[in-house]
From TrEMBL:
It comes from Robertmurraya beringensis. This is Uncharacterized protein.
């Protein structure tokens, strides 16, 4: 099985050499990196990815699958049309299998997947997830993953952080970044925890695995830590 990730998710081949990274190009032909690092005359600006038609999408995915019958595509629905890739999945089946994961829902989960797939098959990893699992998000913006905010290219505000669970914003807990990280660790003192963060975090506990995502990723208007337990 090959593994493909959208560039905007922040995972790199330096961290996971076995994966493929799909580069995302913005309008004007500028790369994601150019859009994030170029000097901007005013803020906020919004990143607009160039869309591809269905035939181009099929050709792209088949090129990534070259020599393989299965592809795990961890995608970013803010820059990739998930309706199109789901249709492509149906069209190429059963000759080829395309497994889809929305990587923006929780990058801690993506971190977990990529780690486990280094030693297990996709089917075995999915079997291990049949029990109840927890996921959390610590963010400096309650609405960081709304369509209107996710693609904005402006500096993040880090005055206040919020801890969100699967219930969403209704039960958000306020605090400093370190206070909220500690709260999650104390909530699950015996469980293996996977944290994927946009900025480095300080964690000493051996059962907590952390990864700092690439700065060439989205969103940039908020600092985010995704946690999967």
């Amino acid at each position: 099985m090959k593994i493909l990730l959208d560039e905007t998710l922040g995972f790199t081949t330096e961290l996971f050499p076995e994966v493929l990274i799909k580069k995302i190009t913005g309008k004007g032909g500028r790369s994601l990196e150019e859009n994030l690092t170029k000097k901007r005359a005013f803020i906020p600006q919004k990143f607009n990815a160039i869309s591809v038609n269905m035939d181009e999408g099929i050709d792209q995915l088949r090129s990534y699958m070259s020599g393989f019958d299965e592809l795990l595509y961890i995608y970013d629905p803010y820059v990739t049309n998930q309706g199109d890739i789901k249709r492509i999945r149906n069209w190429i089946y059963p000759n080829q299998k395309l497994f889809l994961v929305d990587g923006t829902k929780n990058r801690g989960y993506v971190f977990f997947l990529l780690t486990k797939l280094q030693e297990s098959t996709y089917e075995d990893v999915m079997m291990s997830l049949r029990g109840v699992r927890q996921h959390f998000r610590i963010t400096s913006d309650l609405h960081s993953h709304s369509p209107s905010r996710y693609l904005q290219l402006k500096n993040p505000s880090t005055k206040m952080y919020y801890l969100l669970g699967s219930e969403g914003t209704k039960k958000a807990i306020k605090g400093s970044k370190q206070e909220l990280i500690t709260k999650v660790i104390e909530y699950s003192p015996a469980e293996t925890i996977y944290m994927a963060s946009s900025k480095p975090v300080s964690v000493k506990e051996s059962h907590v695995h952390t990864i700092t995502l690439s700065g060439i990723s989205l969103p940039v208007q908020s600092e985010t830590i995704d946690i999967f337990i």
